[in-house]
Amino acid sequence: MLVREFGDSGLVPLDHAYGVWIRGLVQGGRLDEALEFFKQKKEDKGYIPGLARYNVLIYRLLREDRLDEVYDLFMDMYETAVPPNTVTMNAVLCFFCKKGMVDDALDLFKSRSEFMLSPNHMAYKYLILTLCWDGNAKEAFSVLKSSIDHRFIPDRRTFTRLANVLCRECMIDEMKELLHLALEWKIMPIASTYDNFITALCRAGRVEDSYLNRGDIAARLLIEMKEKGHKVTPALCRVVLCCLLQMDNSRSRFFSLFEMLSHNDRHIYDCFIDAAGHAKQAELAWKVFELMQRNGIQPTSSSLSLMLKAYLKSGRTSDALIFFNNVWSRGLATKKLYNCFVIFLCKSKNPEPAYRFFLKMLEDGLNPSIECYEILVQELCSSERYHEAVNLVDMYEKKGRRITSFLGNILLYQSMFSPEVYNACVRLRGVKEEGKTDWSMLSFVVGAFRRHHRVSHVEDLEKLIAKCFPLDIYTYNLLLRKAWKTDKEQACQLFERMCQRGFEPNQWIYSTMVDGFKRHGMRDKAERWFQESKRIFSNRETRMLI
């Protein structure tokens, strides 16, 4: 061999010749040959490769995601007493983090003294962020403290991410320590960090925690935030007030905080009405609403909607009806208020009054929102009132709007379980003009899902649906469920077409495919798809983070 001849000639040291050959093979894309040569030479005459030879192989293996072999090389380096350098170790640690291999990254970090690893700023940052995304707040905080010991100060993004995870896990003491450290580092927490900390205090039942020797921490921090120019958000106000309303003397606490914050600020009035509604305290919401008017502040459409929601969330539908009728009689019933009323009636499983007020809205010359149509059609179908549901879809189309994916999917889904959906479509089609209308095409598609019409190939059905409404991932899931009942080849082809058209399979799609393979006795393939879905959905969010 040429390499051996160079070595025997004495012109070039043998280990250098081997190194040049290994590097050449790697650069030429012949990594497997390089690995094989590397292993053979190690077994010959006790050849001990230098650090540079290991690094060449490790870098290329990392690029090709061959992590098991990277680990083997590390173990080999350890056994032959060839210490990896800091650059290599930090690259590996960051790579593990990027791949979502949080356990491997953490094991490597904990073995840093054994491997003589001295993490740099980037390695610390990646590891903390990855641990946060994995939900391991305790280890993330531990790594942060280690980084501080080595004089690495986290940036604002790392601080904010860790603070959010600590709050989510209600690790109050650690969060306090982090805030103290932030003051030392001159990192000013953003408003949402305050929000999350107060929320965590409330969830942990530590509203009266003696933080900085002050009681009622959540309420007091809320006041301080407003005084310092931070906007009090409805979500933050909601969580603080809901917590206060569970304490002794809740009403007096509620109005005491209101007096300190309001200063005739319409936004604060709305926040308190909203919070009282979420706490199912409609009486308190009404008191604030009355105070608003008494102090000369005219309620906006948003204020009216919040008061209406307060009644509905408190289960006081009759009071909500009285309130709405009163607003309507004064000519203040806006499109926003109607939409709010109909949607909340639907969500509280009251389709009858929701349908009635929907029709009244149309009589008043107001055009309901798309969400209003969609939620009402969904609730009518859930109540098996298919004729009204189909009639609503027809009314929607008459407004010059194209049927949405949501509306079309509801009809297709419901048609799989009840023949009445198709019957309602046929009855409506009978009173409409003859010919190939959009409605007759939708009726045909609904009938095909119910097997009233035979469509030989699922691709033809897919094209018909596209003429009625835009297909989305939910539509493809319905088509896949239908295809698997008759022809596995068509189902697999449909999956490929879906991917080619830019749709990213979700967990429901994978579940449908796995069930389909099982139904056709293909258990090995079902297991492979199941494992693939587990891998994808466990790593996808981690990849997005990095």
From TrEMBL:
Leader sequence residues: none
Keywords in alphabetical order: Repeat
Keyword Repeat: yes
First and last residues of every PPR repeat: 14-49, 50-84, 85-119, 265-299, 334-368
SUPFAM superfamilies with a match to the protein in the record: HCP-like (SSF81901), TPR-like (SSF48452)
Alphabetical list of PROSITE patterns matching this protein: PPR
Transmembrane segments: none
InterPro entries from the UniProt entry: PPR-containing_protein, PPR_rpt, TPR-like_helical_dom_sf
UniProt cross-references to NCBIfam families, sorted A to Z: PPR (TIGR00756)
Cross-referenced PANTHER family: MEMBRANE-ASSOCIATED SALT-INDUCIBLE PROTEIN-LIKE, OS03G0201400 PROTEIN
Protein family according to the UniProt entry: Belongs to the PPR family. P subfamily.
The protein, known as: Pentacotripeptide-repeat region of PRORP domain-containing protein
Protein source organism: Arachis hypogaea
